[in-house]
Design brief:
The complex is a heterodimer. By secondary structure, chain A is mainly α. Chain A contains 20 helices and 2 strands. Chain B has one domain (5-476). Chain B has a two-stranded antiparallel ribbon with strand order 1-2. Classes of the chains: A mainly alpha, B mainly alpha.
Chain lengths: 495, 479
């Protein structure tokens, strides 16, 4: 079987359930300052704890590690099965990195019902880590769906003026997609006799059956990514969500869609993937171009970043469905990079909103003059977002394009306008914010980043440059898993 | 004494009903009556667990005590206790009738307890009527409001439909008797299957379903649901909405299991009923503004989901249906606890009245959140686990189209459940912000129902196994 024996200490269970323990403590805290500090301390501690996985992780094998396996509902053959490979480990580390930063980003932004908000943040963390750890399809689905509740509440309770619309749209859209995932999971269970992901991978399934299962996967994952034309919930949710909500959405939730493709679609339905890959690739190209040009037209900063997400995730799906090592490796890096860069951009926008109470590009013009450190951070994230060489996104997008080139040169050529648009909208935003309208009297009183905000951005800045200049450690982490995945997705190559 | 030991839960509740009857002879005894009912619920629960290992046939083969019946009695007793607890003030029941309320409540429960043990169709029918008639009386007990007698209208509708459905059922039972020459279910089980090819047997069986589908509020027998939910007092509605459905599913298992998976006619019939109920219930629920009415239509849809398990016509399916309806009882009770406490003066609660509930009563808001998301089938609550079992059972028998329709329906249903969540949590609170004071009993009940709703979803093994182990006894009825 494709998994190493359990290591004894249940690392993953501890990771998943620590936030719940933190919630239990939180329930007894009354003072708001204490609530904030406790959440920050507990999420940071968990972030540091998750680093303990790295030295114990064997990068030479694609097998699932840190596995745990306990019967959960014996009669239905549902197991509590956990395990990670390089890809999911990377996503878990991203989650545990982003969560404390989200707490910091909400420090002053969230003024009402702080405790409930922090509970929602911790519940999110549990479900997000759970999704990336689950090796049982039902367990995966439980975390996948349970996440909707705290996320929808986060948008609906602490969001902007149209928060109710955004929360309902987000919930119903995602739910409508995932019910098909549920049917696919059950259908697979009946065909293969197991809810286990590991057992289902590589099971010989008839091509027709695979096509149906893939269709169900595609609907639910494409909505989550979101791929064009399923993206319409995203701008609404992003714009209305509080900063932490936007960051969670961008950095982690969207990754679940692409992670779903990598974990479910490619290994389980390889034949159907090959059959449908050309169409998905073209949808990805459309997403890259559409997201880029839609972002170019926005005046609301959050909307701008939201549409840029559509474009970036287009790169991720492009890389995945290129079905070669460069493409999938690039896609995984794009997932990580988008989590860091776009998360950072949403924090920046949230910070502007906290200071100016507007997200309008024109109203925020010229603030760089008064906030030089801020302008540096912002500039760096913008450069990263347009995949400037030396920043993290360059590596990912380069690999994706290299992978895509092997599949179809025409397609990559078609994606170029989207890349140019990325440069255009990012530089336009940067130009306006840093240098435009220097004489705006409203901005004279603006304060530059304070210590909390510096701490919030520091790790992201470090990662932008680290991945950009020395990506090798990150690639090494996922390399074996990606190669194995490519092999699974190309059954003809199998011995 | 020993021979009657398995009959202990029923004896306890009959004695209790007698006590309640004497209490009704005085006045102002409602507090005592309530505690007697709660005590009875505990006693029946304990009694059912004590006798769960015994297996006996009583009263010349008309009555059977086995693991299956005792498990259901325990479930019913749990619900009975919740309802007796939740009915705190009975604010909307006429003052002079409050003691009687507990008497009829307990009598109706007696009927349900007898129902799950009856293995003779005549006993079964009498038990069914015993569980129904007190309900017919409970509905009009609601306080009269000037110029509005909706509770009377509801009661008349309820009894008319009830009697008609029971009549149809009796007619069907007549056919089964005519075909097999016996009113005893074990004999019918033995003799009917070979005859199932004949239209007469199918008609008899289908007509027999009527009385049970009426209790469940399945599509063509659902007409009473919205009006009775709306017209009856909140406490009465929480009873009607929960417990009888559990017993109805249990008895339906006995009858449907007469058909084998190959009996396509029965499967087709059940499929049609399930689809009609789901689609109808969900679509009409979308536009409701009264919370109880909305839960009424959602109840029709949920009954349809439960039938999805029956369509499989095998043990996995029946077990899934029973698990689902048990979970449904808990979820819907969680919602009704909130309704009972939110309502001012016992009136009905409009969805708009939930606005700002999270400020007025955070615990109630949380309970409603858990109940609603459980009904919507979102994990980790029981609604999801139940649905997973149902869909697995139906898909295993190749009912792909039915499964797809079911999941589309549950996606549609999310919209109206979210409307409730929206009002509760997202709604702007203008006007009064009076806190809702909760008694310790209410707080306890909320916590218990939330814990059970979550626990049944996260650790369902115990209950799933108990149901699955008890089922063969219900189906085979071997002496």
């Amino acid at each position: 079987m494709l998994s190493t024996p359990a290591t004894g200490f249940p690392f993953l269970s501890v990771l998943i359930f620590s936030p719940l323990a933190a919630v239990a403590v939180l329930a007894f805290l009354r003072d708001e300052r204490l609530v904030r500090w406790w959440t920050l301390v507990s999420t940071t501690a968990l972030g540091l704890f998750s680093l303990a996985l790295l030295p114990r992780f064997d990068t030479t094998t694609a097998a699932f590690q840190f596995t745990e396996h306990t019967p959960w509902i014996a009669r239905l053959q549902i197991n509590y099965a956990l395990g990670v490979d390089g890809i999911s480990l990377l996503m878990i580390l991203l989650t545990t990195l982003i969560t404390p930063l989200c707490v910091l980003a909400s420090w002053n932004y969230i003024k009402v019902r702080v405790k409930e908000f922090m509970i929602a943040v911790l519940l999110m963390e549990t479900t997000m880590i759970g999704v990336f750890c689950a090796l049982d399809t039902v367990l995966f689905f439980v975390f996948w769906e349970a996440m909707l509740i705290p996320m929808a509440l986060m948008i609906g309770v602490w969001g902007g003026p149209r928060r109710i619309y955004a929360a309902l749209k987000f919930f119903i859209y995602t739910m409508a997609g995932s019910v098909f995932l549920l049917v696919a999971i059950i259908a697979l269970r009946l065909k293969t006799g197991s809810f286990s992901l590991v057992d289902t991978m590589g099971a010989p399934l008839a091509p027709g059956f695979q096509a149906w299962v893939f269709a169900a996967f595609f609907i639910s994952f494409a909505i989550k990514v979101p791929m064009f034309p399923f993206h319409t919930w995203l701008p609404a949710a992003h714009v209305e969500a509080p900063t932490a909500g936007s960051v969670f959405l961008a950095s982690v939730l969207l990754k679940m869609g692409t992670y779903g493709f990598l974990r479910f679609a490619l290994p389980i339905t390889p034949l159907a993937v090959h059959q449908f890959a050309p169409y998905v690739l073209w949808l990805s190209v459309v997403a890259i171009i559409y997201g880029g040009f839609a972002a170019l037209a926005q005046t609301d900063l959050k909307k701008l970043v939201a549409y840029s997400s559509v474009s970036h995730m287009g790169f991720a799906t492009l890389g995945i469905f290129a079905l070669n090592p460069a493409g999938i490796e690039g896609a995984t890096l794009v997932m990580l990079n988008h989590g860091i860069t776009t998360g950072g951009l949403f924090m920046v926008v949230g910070l502007i909103y906290e200071r100016l109470h507007t997200r309008d590009l024109a109203a925020a013009a010229g603030i760089g003059k008064y906030m030089p450190v801020f302008a540096f951070v912002y500039g760096l994230f913008c450069l990263s977002s347009l995949a400037f060489p030396g920043t993290n996104s360059f590596i990912g997008e380069f690999l994706v394009l290299a992978g895509g080139f092997k599949v179809s040169k025409l397609m990559v050529a078609c994606a170029i306008p989207g890349i140019v648009a990325a440069a255009a909208y990012n530089l336009r935003m940067l130009q306006k914010l840093a240098w435009g309208g220097v004489n705006n009297p409203d901005h004279t009183g603006l304060k530059d980043l304070n210590f909390r905000e510096l701490v919030m951005f520091a790790p992201l800045v470090v990662f932008v440059l680290w991945i950009g200049l020395a990506p090798q450690p990150f690639i090494r982490l996922i390399h074996a898993s990606v190669l194995h995945l490519v092999q699974q997705a190309n059954p003809a190559v199998l011995p | 004494m020993n021979a009657l030991f398995p009959f202990l839960p029923e004896l306890v509740i009959l004695a209790g009903a007698l006590v309640l009857f004497f209490l009704t002879l005085g006045t102002g005894r409602e507090a005592t009556a309530r505690w007697v009912s709660i005590g009875l619920a505990v006693a029946v629960f304990v009694g059912a667990l004590l006798t769960s290992c015994s297996s006996a046939t009583l009263f010349d083969g008309a009555y059977r005590v086995d693991a299956f019946s005792q498990l259901l009695k325990a479930i019913v007793a749990f619900g009975y206790g919740c309802i007796a607890f939740l009915s705190g003030g009975l604010r909307d029941i006429r003052t002079e009738a409050r003691t009687e309320y507990y008497l009829f409540l307990s009598l109706s429960i007696t009927g349900l307890l007898l129902l799950v043990s009856s293995v003779d169709v005549i006993t079964l029918f009498i038990a069914l009527e015993l569980s129904s008639y007190p309900l017919y009386l409970l509905v009009p007990m609601r306080r009269e409001r000037t110029g509005q007698r909706s509770q009377m209208e509801s009661a008349v509708k309820y009894i008319m439909f009830g009697v008609a459905a029971n009549g149809v059922m009796l007619f069907g039972l007549g056919y089964l008797y005519g075909l097999t020459g016996s009113t005893s279910l074990p004999v019918i089980i033995e003799k009917l299957p070979p005859l199932l090819g004949s239209p007469l047997a199918l008609t008899g069986l289908a007509l027999t379903f009527a009385g049970l589908l009426y209790k469940l509020a399945i599509f063509p027998f659902h007409f009473w649901t919205p009006d009775v939910y709306e017209g009856a007092a909140n406490e009465t509605t929480s009873l009607i909405a929960s417990l009888p459905k559990v017993a109805a599913v249990a008895v339906l298992v006995r009858f449907v299991s007469l058909a084998s998976p190959e009996t396509t006619a029965i499967a087709t019939l059940l499929t049609c009923l399930a689809i009609a109920s789901m689609v109808y219930g969900n679509l009409i629920a979308l536009v409701q503004t009264d919370l109880k009415r909305l839960l009424g239509f959602s109840g029709i849809a949920h009954a349809g989901y439960a039938l999805v398990g029956f369509v499989a016509l095998d043990q996995a399916g029946y077990a899934a249906a029973l698990y689902y309806i048990t979970g449904y009882m808990v979820m819907v009770l969680a919602c009704f606890v909130v309704i009972c406490h939110v309502s001012k003066d016992g009136t009905n609660v409009a969805i708009s009245e939930l606005a700002g509930l999270h400020r007025r009563a955070p615990l109630l808001a949380l309970t409603l959140l858990v109940g609603i998301f459980a009904l919507a089938g979102i994990p980790p609550f029981v609604g999801f686990m139940g649905k997973l079992g149902l869909l697995t059972a139906a898909l295993a028998r190749g009912h792909t189209a039915l499964v797809i329709i079911t999941v589309i329906n549950s996606a549609v249903a999310v919209y109206y459940y979210l409307r409730i969540v929206r009002a509760t949590f997202f709604g702007e609170t203008e006007g009064e912000q009076t806190k809702i004071a909760l008694t310790p009993a209410a707080i306890g009940l909320c916590v218990v129902l939330m814990v059970v709703t979550t626990a049944l979803g996260v650790f369902p093994t115990q209950v799933v196994d108990a149901i699955a182990n008890a089922l063969p006894a219900a189906i085979a009825l071997a002496p």
